[in-house]
Amino acid sequence: MDSKPKRRTVIENGDTGEDLVLATLIGNGDDLGPLVRHAFEMGRPEPLVQQLKHVVKKKEVEIEELCKTHYEEFILAVDELRGVLVDAEELKSDLASDNFRLQEVGSALLVKLEELLESYSIKKNVTEAIKMSKICIEVLELCVKCNNHLSEGQFYPALKTLDLIETNYLKNIPVNKIKIVIAKNIPIIKAHIEKKVTTHFNEWLVHIRSSAKDIGQTAIGHSASARQRDEEMLERQRKAEEQNICGLGELVYSLDVEEVDEDSVLKFDLTPLYRSYYIHACLGIQEQFREYYYKNRLLQLNSDLQISSSQPFVESYQTYLAQIAGYFIVEDRVLRTSGGLLSADQVETMWDTTVAKVASILEEQFSHMDSATHLLLVKDYISLLGATLREYGYEVGSVLEVLDNSRDKYHELLLEECRQQIANIISNDSYEQMLLKKDSDYDNNVLAFHLQTSDIMPAFPYIAPFSSMVPDCCRVVRSFIKGSVDYLSYGVNSNFYDVMRKYLDKLLIDVLNEIVLTKVHSAGIVVSQAMQIAANISFLERACDFFLRHAAQLCGIPVRSVERPRASLTAKAVLKSSSDAAYLALLNLVNSKLEEIMALTENINWTSEEISQNNNEYMNEVVFYLDTLLSTAQQILPLDALYKVGSGALEHISNSIIAAFLSDSVKRFNANAVMVINHDLKMLENFADERFHSTGLSERYKEGSFRSCLIEARQLINLLSSSQPENFMNPVIREKNYNALDYKKVASICEKFKDSPEGIFGSLSTRNAKPNSRKKSMDVLKKRLKDFN
Hints:
The protein is mainly α. It is built from 27 helices and 2 strands.
């Protein structure tokens, strides 16, 4: 078997690259189907045929060469080649047939393909147009939506819509004209929104300023109600403690739960402010709005701080202070809820400015006030203002210090008002004992001021030992205490009891005591009035303890702390001294009256030759006057005062008797006159003893009875009636029987004692073994007294 000759590839000059590829494929026995199919698909079979022919020619050349070398193989190859040629022709015919059919089918498909491609292009354009239209529609819908928000005044949604257009749509708007129009109108719309919002905010500024007064008044009203509840609770607690101290009941403590009324919460609308601030923040100009807000509110504050010149301050202070309170209540809520619109420093600055201005105005207005009531009304409202604003965190100490600095001015006005009231009471008083017809009168005039002398309720009608001046003055003092406590309470100092006590002492000493003493020492006052005033002063002195307890209760001080001995008012001691002065004035009046009566001693026959068995007329009048005086004094004066009046009057009578003997009008007297005066003196002594025991003074004063007040007159009469008057010079006898007599007075009186022989001693000579012994003893006494002097 012959080996198969190797294939050779002959490449001639001028062969193209395609021929070379085709030859290579044929030489390698590769399938030419794809190449043929491609030629027909491209509609160019002729070049392929030409290439095949060219390849055939080359193969023929190769064949010839091979034939020359291998003839037989060449013949076989030729035969094969012819067969191949036949196959090629058939293939060509098939290819032509297939190409024809393919052309027929392909032409229709190409038309469809072109139509399809055109449809795809139209679809793409339509899709793009739809997309652009959708964008435009969305933008226009947002524009319409924005316009609707603007027309409805919903500026925040309008801004959000503008921001959405500007951020997500403006750069992507396919229609340039729409894009330009929208871009041009966005700043205009924002400016319009800013203008509208600013207008609404300005309207809110006007509204909130006009509402500030109502806000302040409502808040101050809440503080006043809270204060009243606290005072009522303290009053209940005080009464419970008093009952417990008195043993009237056990202390019962209760928890008062206060229900918060939702309607009482301050309501005012800050929505326009929040909206304006937030919209300005959305516009990126929130700092500008902060400055605008602060500037306008500061202008409003400065305007509010100006007081009206057309209206008195006492008529406008509530409106003025309520406006300020409302202003800062609003600012506090803005500070807490607006999210940075106001700073704490700004509010503090406004508050400091307000405090300085208000303090200056109050000091000026207080200096012009001439009514304690007006000053108290302003003070109460200012303290409520302080309590209200303190709840919102404002420091109100500087405002309350103004009240503290004006307390002297207030009390001066209050003292002056009380002075006028007390002066009118005292000048209009009848100085007659009060007649209380029923228990309510007793409660209002006696028990109300602890003036009762007994815990037993008296029978009515009841005659009080004091005149109407006492309860009337007590009411004035009580109202003074209330007014003073009202002013001093809720101020800078919570413990103001000592201050209040100082002013109370000032009222009682400088006003009440002074007016009473003026009345006591005034001209035209009679004994009955002086006695009643003296009695009234003693009851006013007793009322000092009530005043002190009442002041302590109102000041919230435990009553037991003011019941200590050293805790009493200074005025009590002063009134005690005034009471003594009143008794002295009373005694002076009594003595003046007694002097008028004792002046009747000039009618005594000092040298009578007969002994009268009747008392002198003057002594009857003295006893009658003393009886009336002591009866009245017993009803209204305390026992010590009664003793002072009685003892003073009797002592003055004793002195008057001595003065009668010493009088220049009495040149001489005899024993008969001494006997008559002795009868008078005995009558007076009996009256003194009876009154000393009937008034109950004997139980208190074991020593020093009324009789002892007549001791000087009694010892003088005893001396003049003695059988041995010279014993006066005996120290032992004188100390025992004549210790109240003065040497000089005795010497002067004894010099006037001229007893006649046919006088009393002469008449007694028949009964006396030594009729002239008394005269001799008197002469000895006269001589020894003369030598002593």
